[in-house]
Request: fold
Amino acid sequence: MLCGAPFVALCFATRSMPLLLAALGAWGFFKGLYDANIFASLYDAIPVRARGVAAGWMNTVGWLGGGGLAPLLVGLVAMHHGLGPAMALAAGVYLLAGALLLMAAWRGLPQNLAHSSQQGA
Reply:
């Protein structure tokens, strides 16, 4: 998410079609890396008995926020301030989410390393 945020910002900052297409392609690449690993990382961190509930909550939050509220908020911001600031807000959300994911990963790193070393022994 952190790697994709600058490309989201570049989408609203450029007036060049080739640069816009390159930014969208780069954003899509990093979004794909994030999306492809989200459930695998969830299953690595959650006990087997709770994985179904955790996956359900993750889908619920993701679709309510990204699929439900984001278009509404982008539309409201764009209506009052233009599409540029709305896209800048989206880039800010990416940065915030990326920072929260890094903090969560850093917090769980010692536990994950201990778990990995026990499985390898």
Observations:
- The chain is about 90% helix and 0% strand.
- The chain has one domain: 5-120.
- The mean pLDDT is 84.
